[in-house]
Amino acid sequence: MTRPTGRVLTLLELLQSGGTRTVAELADRLGVEGRTVRRYVDQLIDLDVPVESVRGRYGGYRLAPGCRLPPLMLRDDEALAVMLGLVAGRRAGLTTTERTASETASAKIRRVLPKHIARRLDTLLEALAFTDQPGKFDTPDAGVLLTIADAVRHYRPVSIRYTDRDGRRSERTLHAYGIVAHAGRWYVTGKDAQIGKDRTFRLDRIADARTLPGSFEAPVGPGPEQRVLSGFATAEYQHEVTLRIHGTVEQIRARLPASVASLEEHESAAGEDRATERWRRVELRAERLDWIPPVLASLDRPFVIERPDELRDLVIALADRLASYAAEPDREEPMSCDGTPRSCLQRGLSQRNRDAMVTAAW
C-alpha cells in the first residue's frame, strides 16, 4: 500500500469515528497540509464515500448520517475489544433474541479480519478460560428492546404485553424511565399508568411493545438503576425482616447490597457521614430465612433482630451448631471450607463469637 493510499484510509477511519473534523485537525493527524487533506477527501468522494463539507468557524468534514462503509477497519486492540465483548455478553446473558445472533456477528467480523490479527485472536480465545459457568437466561426480543429504548429517550408512553412469574398475562401502559442490565438480565423500570406506581419488568417477559401518542415528564429523584435495586429489596415475599446493625454504610452494604436490603440511619446524629459507625435500620424481604443468619455472622458487626422471631431462633440455632463444631477438634471427618459463607463460618467461629451472636439475636 502506497503512503498516500494509506493516508486516505486513515482519513476514512478518522471520519468513521464520528463528529465533524476540521481541516487543521485532519492535517495534523495525517502529517500533511490542508490542501492535501482536501485532495484526499475528493478521492473518497470519487469512491462514493459520502463525505460532507461543513461550513463555518467550526466547520470541516464529516460523514453523512446512516452511511454504510466498506471496508471494516479495526486495529488489533479494537478487534480484541469487539470479540471479547461478544463473548462476555453471551456468557452474561446480555444478548437479544438468540445466541446465534452473537455467534453470526462474531463469524462475520472474523472473516474480514487480516489473517495475522485473526490468528492472534483465535489464540487468545482458545487460551481463555472462565471460573464461572455461562448463564442460562431467557433473552429479550431485539424489537421490544429497541422500541422501549426509543420510548425512554423521547419520554413517550409505551403499551406492553407482559407475563408475570406466575404466568398471568396483562397489557399495561408504561412510562419507561430507563433500561437496566442486572445479574444477567434486562429490566425496564417506570410508572405503571393504570395503578400510578413505579414498577420494574423483566424485558424477556414482554411479548410486544408499542409506542403510544403523547409524552410524560421526566422523573425526579433516583436514577433507573437505583429504582430497580430498590424494587428488588422491597418486592413482596413471605417474610419481612427488620434489623438494626451497628456499622458504616460500606460495612453493611458489603454483605447486604441495595438489591437485597434497604438501609436507613437509626438515631443518626446531624453532620455525620456514611463512614461513621452507628446503628442503622435495615429492612429486607425474603421468601426463606435460612440464608440470613450466615450473612449476619459474616458481617461481624453488632446487630439486633426486631422481626421476625423466627429469624432470632435461626440465628441462635446457627450459633449453637458453630460452637459445637469449634469445640470438637478431633472429629473423625473434620469440616472443610468449600468456599461458601456457611461452611467457612462453621469452620472458624469461636465460642466467644457464638456468645456474641446469641446476645445480638436478643
How would you describe this structure to a colleague?
The chain has a five-stranded antiparallel β-sheet. A four-stranded antiparallel β-sheet has the order 9-10-8-11. Strands 1-2 form a two-stranded antiparallel ribbon. The longest helix is centred in the last third of the chain and has 18 residues, at about 310-325. Helix 4 (about 75-90) runs antiparallel to helix 5 and helix 11 (about 310-325) crosses helix 12. The protein is built from 13 helices and eleven strands. The protein has helices spanning about 5-15, 25-30, 35-45, 75-90, 100-110, 115-125, 140-155, 225-235, 250-255, 290-300, 310-325, 340-350, 350-360; strands at about 50-55, 60-65, 160-165, 170-180, 185-190, 195-200, 205-210, 240-245, 260-265, 280-285, 305. The radius of gyration is 29 Å and the shape is elongated. The protein has about 350 residues and is α+β, with helices and mostly antiparallel strands. The N and C termini lie far apart (about 80 Å). Helices cover about 40% and strands about 20% of the residues.
Outline? elongated
Radius of gyration: 29 Å
Low-confidence stretches: 339-362
Helix content estimate: 40-55%
Entry keywords:
four-stranded antiparallel beta sheet; 362 residues; disordered C terminus; alpha+beta; five-stranded antiparallel beta sheet; elongated; single chain; 11 strands
